[in-house]
Write a structure and sequence with these properties.
Residues 139-203 form the Thiamin pyrophosphokinase thiamin-binding domain. It comes from Streptococcus vicugnae. Pfam families: TPK_B1_binding (PF04265), TPK_catalytic (PF04263). 19% of the residues lie in helices and 31% in strands. With 203 residues, the protein is an alpha/beta fold. Strand 6 and strand 7 form a beta hairpin.
């Protein structure tokens, strides 16, 4: 299994380096170079870097892919598609998915809404110091606790109902109430939580 790190254009205050492949998304490419990390892929329209910075990225990247600013995908979506084309079994961690433009953050939170990325949703994790975002397809999902993290929240894509079992606050037919996001729940004694979703996907 290939472990891929994608460095996007949001805040990059906390990241790890134990990966096989490093991907820079637009200005994230420059961040990798400035931190003396490999730049295996550089992907984006590169509208957030100067001409000199772009030339440096072109020179240093093993694979350089420049897209038109007028495109259907965000730079991060485009980078993920290129990664899964080459490494279809990869486990991908995205750093810098938060803390920048809010429209980019929202796009990152709903990556499985792209039909090309939906088949890979279980292979994508968004991570920073305070957050770990994962995606689960409809059905019964077993959510494992994360070291150092107490709280867990659930959001269903679309209007599907969900149930929560094994958490501090369970949700089933006896106490069901409808919300877009069920936030600030907690793991009990570091035990897994089971969430069942009728359709769509779980964030």
């Amino acid at each position: 299994m290939t472990k891929v790190a994608v460095f996007a254009g949001g805040q990059l205050l906390d990241f790890s380096t134990g990966f096989d492949v490093f991907v820079g998304v637009d200005r994230g490419s420059l961040f990798l170079l400035e931190n003396h990390l490999p730049l295996d892929f550089a992907v984006g329209d590169f509208d957030s870097v100067s001409k000199d910075e772009l030339q440096r990225i072109k020179t240093k990247a093993e694979i350089f892919i420049q897209a038109s600013p007028e495109k259907d995908d965000t730079d991060t979506e485009l980078a993920l598609k290129k990664v899964f084309e080459q490494y279809p079994e990869a486990q991908v961690t995205i750093f810098g998915a938060f803390g920048g433009r809010i429209d980019h953050m929202m796009s990152n939170l709903f990556l499985p809404g792209d039909p090309d990325l939906a088949p890979f949703m279980r292979q994508i994790t968004l991570r920073d110091k305070q957050n770990c975002i994962q995606f689960y397809p409809a059905g019964s999902c077993r959510i494992l606790p994360e070291d150092g993290m107490t709280y867990v929240s659930f959001m269903a894509d679309g209007d599907a109902n969900l149930t929560i079992d094994g958490a501090k606050y369970n949700l089933d037919a006896s106490n069901f109430f409808k919300k877009k996001i069920y936030s600030s729940n907690e793991f009990l004694d570091q035990q897994p939580i089971t969430v069942t979703l009728e359709s769509g996907y779980l964030i």
